[in-house]
Amino acid sequence: MSKPPVLEASATATTKFLPNLFELVDSLAADFATRAATHDRDSSFPFENFDTLHKAKLLSLTIPVEFGGLAVGYTTACKVIEKIASGDASTALVLTMHYLQHANAARHRRWHPAVYEKLCRESVEGIALLNAARVEPELGTPARGGLPATIAKRTPDGWSITGHKQYTTGSPILRYFVVWARTNDDEPQVGSFLVPRDIPGVKIVETWDHLGMRATGSHDLILEDVCIPPEYALDVRLAKAWSQPDPLMLAAGSLLLSALYQGVATAARDWLVEYLNERSPTNLGASLATLPNFQTAVGEIEALLYANHRLIYSLAADIDRGEHHTNVNLSAQTVKYLATSNAIKALEIGLQLIGNPGLSKKNPLERHYRDVLCSRIHTPQNDVICSALGRSALKIKKLANVH
To answer: Among residues 239, 268, 294, which one ends one of the domains?
Structure first.
């Protein structure tokens, strides 16, 4: 079974370049945690975290060694995202999207080798993040089908892009947007167009004010006759040709997001354990941690997190070894469904256990709960996953048309 084009396992490179990778990531997560509540409260973007991530060479974690990256596998990438998320979930989400878009760009390197090398080298040499811009006000998420309203017009010098995108995670810091658009041909083609941030016609409108993941800067992107060279059309084809997406790319998204919300739930568990050991009501004369029902509840949280760990890292290891099956995407989606559901349940157990203190803004548990609820929004969403699992079990290839 073939391995993915990036996120390839390369333990030698990782060991040689960053012999203490996970100790470094632990240290960074602890540092990010000291500012996470402030960025959450102010809905401010954590620029300083990405300066630190660049200096630590973590922005190039999944980039091929030939371009100065570490080319780590799924297992290492998941561990890094999980730990960063335990410090600051918003930072981890922006980093996750950066990793995924680099993996996606690697799939097309044989068609645009110079563009791909440029993206890689910029991410190694500086703070050059990229992310997709796909969701639109009218269309919603393209994962549910439909053509984008964003239009790419052919010009003598390449392409002119006009459109409106929403929820562009990381927009305050991104150097490139990978814009989902359709051409203005009689038979429209659809695909991804690479749009640099600092060119005429690109505008960010600060609209992001959500319940959770408040520091991700997921603002609106407005494109008005933005001109890009022809080679920045990364992958453009007829809409029907997109019916068979790369299963490994989809699997990467589900696994990294699962690891991210595992990190959030683990951070919440750690806060809860410390609180229960320190909190000693006068009428009890001992810490809450000594109460059997509290021990049982924490034990349930431990079981949920243990199950998540086994699910995420057993599949990641299978992919790294090239031992995954052809339906790896559905397996990864199943992991996402279970792991994020478990993470939410773990937070809810903690909140029910301690009541008002858990919902106080001065305690991290309240922020972790808001952040973990965002796991339900990311593609693929739970109904899509369960529908696919049901069709697979029932041996139905696709849903019948319903009128």
So the answer is: 239
Rounded to whole angstroms, the Cα distance separating 319 from 231 reads 31
Q: What is the DSSP letter of 215?
A: T
Bridge partners for 248 per DSSP: none
At 96, which CATH number? 1.10.540.10
pLDDT, tens only, 273-322: 999 999 988 888 899 999 999 999 999 999 999 999 999 999 999 999 99
Task: Please identify, among 215, 239, 263, the residue that sits at the C-terminal boundary of a domain.
Answer: 239
pTM summary value: 0.93
Looking at the fold, whether 254 and 229 belong to one and the same domain comes out as no
The total domain count for the chain is: 3
The enclosing H or E element of 27 equals: helix 21-42
Q: How far apart are CA 39 and CA 32, in angstroms?
A: 10
305 and 342 in a common domain: yes
As to burial, measured by CB atoms within 10 angstroms (0-12 exposed, 13-18 middle, 19+ buried), residue 367 is buried
What would the pLDDT profile of 163-212 be if each residue is shown by its tens digit? 999 999 999 999 999 999 999 988 899 999 999 999 999 999 999 999 99
> Residue 189: which H helix or E strand, with range?
strand 189-196
Give the separation between CA 341 and CA 375, rounded to whole angstroms.
8
- Beta-carbon count within 10 A of 241 CB: 12
Q: Do 43 and 145 reside in the same domain of the chain?
A: no
